[in-house]
Amino acid sequence: MAIVNTHYLNLPGNYLFSEIAKRVQTHAAAHPDAKLIRLGIGDVTSPLPPSVIAALHRAVDEQATAEGFRGYGPEQGYPFLRETVAASCYHGLGIQPDEIFISDGAKCDIGNFQELFATDCRVAITDPVYPVYADSNVMAGRGGAMPPESPENGRFSGLIYLPCTAENAFVPSLPEKRPDLIYLCYPNNPTGTVLTKEELAQWVAYAREHECIIFFDAAYEAFIHTPDIPRSIYEIDGARDVAVEFRSYSKGAGFTGLRCGFAVVPKTVYGRPAAGKGGKSGSIALHGLWNRRQTTKYNGCPYIVQRAAEAVHSPEGQRETRVVIAEYMDNAGLIRRCFEDLGMSVAGGIDAPYVWVRIPRGMDSWTFFDLLLQRAGIVGTPGSGFGPSGRGYFRLTGFGGRENTREAVERLRRLSL
Ligand code: MLT
Question: Which residue of 29, 95, 363, 408 has the lowest C-beta tally within 10 Å?
Answer without folding.
Answer: 29
